[in-house]
Predict the 3D structure of the following.
Amino acid sequence: MRKLLPFPEWPDQDQRAWFQATSTPGLLEIGGKGSHWSDGSKQSIRSGYARWLGYCAVDDSKSLALEPKLRVTRDRIRAYIEHLQSSVESGGLFNYIKHLYDALRVMAPDTDWTWLRELHLRLEKLVVPRNKLPRIVDINILADLGFNLMERSENSADAPDVTDMQRAILYRDGLLISLLAMRPIRRRNLTGIHIGTNLIAEKTGYRLYFGAHETKNHAVIEHPLPDWFTPFIERYLTHYRLMFPNAINHDGLWASCKGGALCSDAIYDRVAIHTEDALGYPINLHLFRDCFATTIASDDPENVQVAADMLGHSSLAITERYYIQKNTSKACTTYQNTLAVLHRKLQHDNDKR
């Protein structure tokens, strides 16, 4: 069954509604209801809506002739949910219905979508969160992995079976992993680091900066990098980055051997490859954020607010709820051991009496 209906194949009325909803405002014009969405949000919501259209195209192709607001009925949504439940888990089901709601509320803003909003809120309560704890790694291990890759690159200078490009890729990947471990920014920002704009050189070293228009929650992100990290950055900028073709003609930090900046998917794949080689399983980009928050909470609980600040959260509660992975079984074991020690001490004291 066709899962997504490509945008060029969307019904004309849906294409027009989407363009109007996401159009960027001009100086004297009002933008669409979804014009403030980030590029990532637009892509996710459009993909979710494309899945709905893909379902309609197969299940009830005649419905594609209807306006978006008339096509979405309670009966069709009920059947759509039953269809989704056969192939996706609770989290995926929630996301698809939420994205459908988000698309419709801007594509058909004059329609009352309260019932669909209430539906996706009910589905959210049924989401069973995935247990991330088995995949959590101390963030220092991930940082060390990056430094080890850079060291391997430097040490292979005289190796006859390693090309300069292979060394450059290895050093770039190591710098990327170490930077992500120390400053676990979101995938979009990691991919979009531009030299001089987002990576800024200062007298004391380097600073990461992202304007409000570049971040998920529209808040400025500004993180100074430690001064001891400066030599690694400069070694990459003045030596290894220049080995990549066309590197002098673009300002993307993560240069690609294809002549431009490394794309988001390629960055994801490179990090997954190296972490799987080192750990036996891949650590995806977003999981670095969980690893960072959990490490801070475990090693320095008094300063756990640092984790919220570094992740760009408006409150510590968000960090604690979604990113700090608590080892409940470990805590229970520790508690039981403490009780056992106390019990033995009390028994020993009683025996003395």
Observations:
- Strands lie at 199-202, 205-210, 221-224.
- The first strand starts at residue 199 and ends at 202.
